[in-house]
Amino acid sequence: MEAGTLYLAPPDRHLLAKNPDSPHLLLTKGPRENNFRPCVDALFRSAAVTYGAAVVGVVLTGMLHDGTAGLEFIKRCGGVAVVQDPRDAEFASMPETALRNVAVDHVVPLHQMGPLLELLTREAVPNARIIAIPEDLKLEAAIAERVVGTIEDVEKLGNMVPITCPDCGGNLWEMEHGSVLRYRCHTGHSYTAEVLLHDSQHGLEETLWVALRMMEERKNLLSSMARREETPTPCTRSSASRS
Q1: Is the peptide bond before 109 cis (omega within 30 degrees of 0)?
Q2: SS3 state of residue 57
Q3: Secondary element (H or E) of residue 40
Q4: Looking at 6-10, 180-184, 196-200, 214-218, which range is the least confident one?
Q5: Could you report the per-residue pLDDT of 80-112, keeping only the tens digit for each?
Q6: pLDDT tens-digit series, residues 176-213
Q7: Burial bucket for residue 195 (CB in 10 Å: 0-12, 13-18, 19+)
Q8: What whole-number distance in Å separates Cα of residue 201 and Cα of residue 32?
Q9: CA distances from residue 81 to 70, 98, 193, 236, 241 in whole angstroms, order as listed
Q10: What is the residue-averaged pLDDT of the chain?
Q11: What 8-state DSSP symbol labels residue 132?
């Protein structure tokens, strides 16, 4: 990675920060997180684990809940969380969700974002913010890189709950750490509670429409059978005529 350079994740790849001694970026096709790949939470977590208190995470306008868990990862590693003022955002959902769940350091409109980031990136990191990187985040970062990812690894992070993963159908574990309620399966898919709730609502609606279609089809089939039973067949009429 080079200063003054903007890096964008290509489609269908997670973009992860790696190795503070020789900074570089890693592209992976690891499991989707919150149904996305690339996922900003995966990027924020990798940056927080790699650079700790030197990281500044920013969540701008957007829909749903992306970035909330990632901002909390950054805060847990001593970094700074910045959110666009929801009143200034075209879509306020992402900033509002971040503000509800994370102790955000700065909330500013878009026209103040540039000067704020210039100030933050020029300041030295205060010693008070430099802390040990939580072990659970190190493990989750390794799972995202596909370095580890077994049931035993996930069991170190939380407790199994009677909920299945929307992506692979496997068991989900409820994460024990952090203030944002999250779930993860042993293959690596990860969700915040809000995203999981949204997915379950979508799945429930689809199931109800399928049930309605099946009942309509059964009604149509029974109606056809009833009409056939009420109509005499040609063989029946012929026999009656001869007798």
Answers
A1: no
A2: strand
A3: helix 40-51
A4: 196-200
A5: 999 999 999 999 999 999 999 999 999 999 999
A6: 999 999 999 988 999 999 889 988 888 888 889 999 99
A7: buried
A8: 19
A9: 10, 9, 21, 83, 91
A10: 91
A11: P
User: What amino acid is encoded at 213 in this protein?
Assistant: R
Q: How many residues does the chain have?
A: 243
Structure tokens at 192: 């915040």
Tokens of residue 59, six digits: 């969540």
d(CA 69, CA 42): 9
Buried/exposed code over 87-97 (b: 16+ C-beta within 10 A; e: otherwise): ebbeebbbbbb
| Domains of the chain and CATH, by start | 14-135 (3.40.50.180)
Tally Cβ neighbours within 10 Å of residue 51: 19
Q: What is the Cα 95 distance to its own chain's centre?
A: 15
